[in-house]
Amino acid sequence: MRAQWRHQWGLDRPLSEQFVRYVASLARGDWGYSFSMHEPVRDALARALPNTLLLMGVGYVLSFGVGVLLGVLQAARRGSRFDRGLGGIALFFYSMPDFWLALMVMLTLAYWFPVFPTSGMVDPVMHEYYTPAERVLDVLR
To answer: Is the pTM of this model over 0.85?
Structure first.
């Protein structure tokens, strides 16, 4: 069975030939098969793309809005303790590694203060889902 699968997926060929065949199939738009999701990679990506774009868009809009707001506040109070304090806080978060900051935000907003779901978007019709306010009240009880 193992030999049959190796032949079926072309894993019994030399590595250079496997790479050339892989690049050629990518150029044709054939991205292969996802063994973990049991479907073509193209279908898995097409299903995940809308949620990814929504999350990315909301993140960019919020970060742009907060950045402009903080910049205007700092410019309005230039040289004050507020300006220096906000500049120090901004420098602290800017110097923090992105992956660490993302983990800490997820830990804070999904576990300690359960505002967001921890494992993706949930369909409220198919799954029991609490609103963020209900989750906070449930945690406080």
So the answer is: no
